[in-house]
Amino acid sequence: MRTLIDDAVAQGATLGVLGATDDGRALYQTLGWKRHAPLAACVYRP
């Protein structure tokens, strides 16, 4: 994950958006990610 983040920044990324489970969020927070809003999963099937 750190390699992907570093590569994105090297290519000019200034914002990252990541969806994660509660367990995944714990990992990403150790890498510097911050929770800003809950994520809802929605599916529309006509």
Automatic annotation (TrEMBL):
It comes from the Bacteria. This is Acetyltransferase. It comes from Streptomyces zagrosensis.
